[in-house]
């Protein structure tokens, strides 16, 4: 089955054309600068690449351009859009309503619209992508794969905030978590690498421009670092992560900020960028640290320290650990961050092998010492595969 995977953002969209049964990707790419001018970056075949400048005033023109590129010209990989059998959508916020991926229906779209205040930048764009695909490819089944779904197994004492209970019953204010498709994929890969399906205690660190940690017991999430929105938890590229409410109030008073202005700072001007003053890209900050920039050094130390604190707390929540996993752009490539996170965790059974850690590879690998009682894995995430596979299973009726 050919599945068209779509991740529609506010001004960009990523796509992939895949057969999840044989795990073959025929094409992938991204549309950028939607609403400004439009750039389509398309990869197909054995690493062939195209960059196409095409007007994209709206998402409709962007998706139309992708479908045209897939079916005609130099980047062609299929004869017709009729070859596409289903569309899988990355959908960000499913609230408590969606604990698994679902076939898109009018009721599902209405529920997503109702949940949009919880993800105002993401859900409307996701819905727009769904509706455009329904228009351009009528009759094709669409499936929504929610970032929050994997975390719906958290117990109430883990997802509740210590606010008046009415804030939860009236407004749904609680921890939801994100990056669920990645945490699901990586934790299951780790279970396979452990050759152990029962009594597995796994901590997954998804580290990129957006980052989160999850505690996974026997394949089910019992806690995660992100909360009602993706701002909570770890220090990220431009997001602050955990900040006390008193500090937020004090900053607002001193700088004469509205709540929207304060949240804009916490979402877009904080994190690695805010502390280093250099970049939100950790690679540039690591380079700055090596050149003696003390603010870059501080940012790197903070990133690793905060991850390490979450790892330790989740080992406690799991009553031990069988595997610690690193994934995402930073998790897969930043050996120094992995080294700093694992330093001193010997008492938890986590002992990193410096030679294995420094060895670069695109494959999943074990970087712990032979004597480590718990394993340390680097596992490249495959969120698009999870979306495509869930879409295939739902459309074919086999279930996840």
UniProtKB/TrEMBL annotation:
Gene3D superfamilies found in the cross-reference section: 3.30.420.40
Pathway membership: Metabolic intermediate biosynthesis; acetyl-CoA biosynthesis; acetyl-CoA from acetate: step 1/2
Pfam families tied to this protein: Acetate_kinase (PF00871)
Keyword Nucleotide-binding: yes
Keywords: ATP-binding, Cytoplasm, Kinase, Magnesium, Metal-binding, Nucleotide-binding, Transferase
Domain of life, per lineage: Bacteria
Cofactor(s) required for function per UniProt: Mg(2+); Mn(2+)
Catalytic reaction equation(s): acetate + ATP = acetyl phosphate + ADP
GO molecular function terms attached to this record: acetate kinase activity; ATP binding; magnesium ion binding
Binding annotation for ATP: 14, 206-210, 281-283, 329-333
Active-site positions on this chain: 147 (proton donor/acceptor)
GO CC aspect terms: cytoplasm
Family named by the database record: Belongs to the acetokinase family.
Name of the protein: Acetate kinase
Annotated source species: Aliarcobacter cibarius
């Amino acid at each position: 089955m050919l599945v068209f995977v779509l991740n529609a953002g506010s001004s960009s969209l990523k796509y992939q054309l895949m057969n999840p049964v044989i795990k073959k990707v025929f094409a992938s790419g991204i549309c950028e600068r939607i609403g400004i001018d439009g750039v389509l970056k398309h990869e197909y075949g054995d690493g062939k690449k195209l960059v196409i400048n095409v007007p994209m005033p709206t998402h409709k023109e962007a998706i139309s351009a992708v479908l045209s590129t897939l079916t005609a010209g130099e980047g062609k990989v299929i004869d017709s859009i009729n070859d596409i059998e289903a569309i899988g959508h990355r959908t960000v916020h499913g609230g408590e309503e969606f604990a698994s991926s679902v076939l898109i229906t009018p009721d599902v779209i209405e529920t997503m619209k109702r949940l949009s205040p919880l993800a105002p930048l993401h859900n409307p764009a996701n819905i727009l992508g769904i509706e455009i695909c329904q228009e351009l490819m009528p009759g094709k089944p669409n499936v929504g794969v929610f970032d929050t779904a994997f975390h719906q197994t958290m117990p109430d004492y883990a997802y509740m905030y210590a606010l008046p209970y009415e804030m939860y019953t009236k407004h749904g204010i609680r921890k939801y978590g994100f990056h669920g498709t990645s945490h699901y994929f990586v934790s299951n890969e780790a279970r396979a690498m452990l050759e152990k399906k029962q009594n597995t205690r796994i901590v997954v660190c998804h580290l990129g421009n957006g980052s989160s940690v999850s505690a996974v017991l026997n394949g089910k999430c019992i806690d995660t670092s992100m909360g009602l929105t993706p701002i909570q938890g770890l220090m990220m590229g431009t997001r602050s992560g955990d900040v006390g409410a008193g500090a937020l109030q004090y900053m607002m008073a001193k700088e004469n900020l509205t709540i929207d202005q304060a949240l804009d700072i916490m979402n877009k001007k904080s994190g690695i960028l805010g502390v280093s003053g250099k970049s939100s890209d950790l690679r540039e900050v690591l380079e700055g640290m090596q050149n003696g920039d003390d603010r870059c050094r501080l940012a790197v130390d903070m990133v690793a320290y905060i991850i390490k604190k979450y790892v330790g707390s989740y080992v406690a929540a799991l009553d031990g650990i069988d595997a610690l996993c690193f994934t995402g752009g930073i998790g897969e490539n930043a050996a120094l961050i992995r080294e700093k996170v694992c330093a001193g965790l010997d008492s938890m059974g986590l002992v990193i092998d410096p030679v294995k850690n420094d060895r670069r590879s695109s494959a999943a690998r074990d970087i712990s010492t032979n004597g480590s009682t718990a394993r340390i894995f680097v596992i490249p995430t495959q969120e698009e595969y999870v979306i495509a596979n869930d879409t295939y299973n739902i459309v074919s009726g086999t279930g996840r």
